[in-house]
Write a structure and sequence with these properties.
This protein is mainly alpha-helical. Helices cover 62% and strands 2% of the residues. The protein is built from 15 helices and two strands. A two-stranded antiparallel sheet has the order 1-2. The chain starts with 5 loop residues before the first helix and ends with a helix.
């Protein structure tokens, strides 16, 4: 049985080892001083308590309790808000912007409806390039410059016969403003040349724009007449196929290849037109088209299908000849060479039809394809020789 201290046995009360309860001062200005005094007293009481000797070797428990108590007293005295840990100060909820889409039915027949139709599909953005007019204006400016050139040559010849020093000194030529004909002529030539150069560069850029495909031209013609957007006399320009310019960039906004995509689109619509419209037409395009039979399709979705078809064709062009060469490995070598020749031609034709690769790119890809088949043929012949 443990011994009882004499102070307890004699009826005296032992000093309490629990920390005294802090009392808040009514005056916040003296709160910190009182806390410091009570903290000192609490440390002395702990040292006088026998059980508190255990916490001397581990001061972290006492110091952490003192820091927590001091922090609570300071928050109460300063009335600081508690920190939010559950997203009380989070950002407000973000709302999605509602898109405003106008249907073609909202436009009355006229040039406004035609502009809306061309805005629905980039492939329908077709205008005239006016090549003949541009050439006529360019030739007119050219002849004006030729006339000014001849006049400058006559002036130089006259000065050479008279005062030839005007040809060797610009300052002497401009000394008398009333006789400075060469300077006025050069300034006029400079203005004409600026206009000529600007028109020349614009003509070259416009000539580089490709003409629309016959499919897109027919689609725009049918839409103009079905919607009544233009009168007959003002819709004649759509017939000038050689003078039309397709402003859409095929690589960015349109289909990758006009021939194969037209064939694929017609095939899908013959199979099931409602299913084609449901799969390849976006919600925005359905709203835009309205009741107008414009046949809008999503270029991104259609190009994804086109790329899948190209991937399948490329895989078959590689696996089918390998399978055939594996089956006829016991045949004479002339059969294998013929198979490689035929499928190499098919691969080169596929690169030209399904892609927009340049000639050197088609040549390099065909050479790599032929090399793969030749390597497979060599390995097959080597296995046959070893067996």
């Amino acid at each position: 049985m443990p011994e009882v201290p004499n102070s307890i046995a004699n009826g005296h009360t032992a000093p309490s080892c629990s920390p005294p309860q802090p009392t808040l001062s009514e005056d916040p200005s003296h709160q910190l001083d009182g806390d410091h005094t009570r903290t000192s007293q609490n440390s002395q009481d702990h040292l006088s308590c026998p059980e508190s000797l255990v916490s001397i070797d581990h001061p972290s428990s006492t110091s952490s309790w003192q820091h927590r108590t001091l922090g609570r007293r300071m928050r109460r005295s300063l009335q600081l808000p508690r920190r939010s840990w559950k997203g009380q100060n989070s950002h407000p909820r973000q709302h999605r912007i509602r898109q405003l889409i106008r249907s073609l039915d909202d436009y009355p027949p006229g040039y406004g409806k035609l502009a809306a139709i061309e805005d629905c599909d980039p492939n329908l953005l077709i205008v005239r390039r006016f090549g003949w007019l541009r050439n006529a204006v360019l030739l007119h400016h050219q002849d004006e410059l030729v006339e000014l050139e001849e006049e400058l040559e006559r002036l130089n010849d006259n000065d050479f016969r008279g005062d030839y020093q005007k040809l060797t000194s610009r300052r002497r030529d401009d000394a008398i403003p009333e006789e400075a004909k060469r300077k006025e002529l050069l300034l006029e030539i400079e203005g004409k040349l600026a206009k000529y150069d600007e028109l020349l560069l614009h003509t070259r850029e416009i000539k580089s724009i490709k003409r629309p495909t016959r499919r897109d031209q027919n689609s725009l013609y049918n839409l103009i007449h079905s919607t009544g957007s233009l009168c007959e006399s003002e819709a004649v320009w759509i017939h000038n196929g050689d003078d039309l310019a397709a402003l859409a960039d095929k690589g960015e906004h349109g289909y990758s290849n006009s021939w194969i995509t037209g064939f694929l689109e017609d095939t899908l619509k013959r199979i099931s037109r409602p299913a084609t419209d449901f799969i390849f037409r976006s919600k925005e395009q359905r709203i835009k088209s309205g009741t107008v039979n414009i046949g809008l399709l999503s270029h991104a979705r259609f190009n994804a299908l086109l790329y899948a078809v190209i991937a399948v064709v490329a895989t078959l062009l590689l696996l089918i000849p390998v399978f055939i060469l594996y089956k006829i490995e016991s045949k004479p070598g002339i059969y294998m060479i013929f198979v490689i020749f035929v499928f190499t031609l098919l691969f080169a034709a596929s690169c030209s039809v399904f892609t927009e690769a340049r000639r050197q790119e088609v040549f390099a890809a065909t050479a790599a394809y032929c090399a793969v088949l030749v390597v497979f043929l060599g390995n097959t012949q080597q296995k046959l020789g070893s067996s």
